[in-house]
Amino acid sequence: MFGAKRKKLKPEEDRRRCNYVTIQGRCNQGKVTLSKDGVRFPSPYCRYHCCKKVDGAACQDMRINAKGFCQRHIQCQGQVNGTRCANAVRGYDPKEFKFCAQYHNCLALDCKNERFYSGESDLKFCADHRCTSPGCDRPKHTGPFCASHTCEAPNCLAFAVGGGGPGEPTRYCDRHRVCQHDQCERFTHARENGGLSNFCGAHYCAWDGCEQAREDAGEGEHCKAHSCIEVAALLPEMPNTGL
Question: Does the global pTM surpass 0.90?
Answer without folding.
Answer: no
